[in-house]
Specification:
Beta-Lactamase, single chain, six-stranded antiparallel β-sheet, GAF, GAF domain-containing protein, Phosphatase_reg/MetRdx, L-methionine-(R)-S-oxide reductase activity, about 170 residues, alpha+beta
Length: about 170
């Protein structure tokens, strides 16, 4: 059983360091990739402030398909190159979008979303999907979020067997 109390820290970097440490404790002893990815999404959704969605899109047959997440019902499939998720997948780079209303081609799964961060999941030069986090406020994400959420994905790469979950 895991402690489900919310992570509390007096600054953003300390918060993320605790988030990464608790993530490792959460997934390091389980070898089922779907279970680990599900708990990883819940860990983000329940600990990040001012967000309305956190989860994963997994590459299957050349497009991004909805994976484990926390939040409202979401778009099921996203073509590579479409919206913020598809752009991050295509470019294999993290997108920090301060105002999704100004992002050409933004896909509004939740009309309340105002900012977004998407981190591509790449391991051994293979794109396996993206980590997507939406917020109902403008300018929610910054370089600190980018740095630590990229570390979050690297930690997932250590424990998740993406080949179990994808068809790339």
């Amino acid at each position: 059983m895991h402690d489900n109390s919310k992570i509390v820290a007096d600054d953003k970097e300390k918060f993320y360091k605790l988030l990464l440490t608790t993530l490792e404790g959460l997934i390091s002893s389980e070898n089922d990739s779907l279970a680990n990815l599900s708990n990883s999404a819940a860990h983000l959704f329940n600990n990040l402030e001012n967000i309305n969605w956190a989860g994963f899109y997994i590459m299957k047959d050349g497009e991004l398909v909805l994976g484990p997440f926390g939040g409202k019902v979401a778009c099921t499939r996203i073509k590579v190159g479409r919206g913020v998720c598809g752009s991050a997948a295509r470019d294999r780079k993290t997108y920090v979008v301060p105002n999704v209303l100004e992002f050409e081609g933004h896909i509004a799964c939740d009309a309340a979303s105002r900012s977004e961060i998407v981190v591509p999941i790449v391991k051994n030069d293979v794109l396996y999907g993206v980590l997507d986090i939406d917020a109902p406020v403008f300018d929610r994400f910054d370089e600190v979020d980018k740095l630590y959420l990229e570390e979050f994905v690297e930690k997932l790469n250590k424990y998740i067997n993406w080949d179990e979950l994808t068809r790339v």
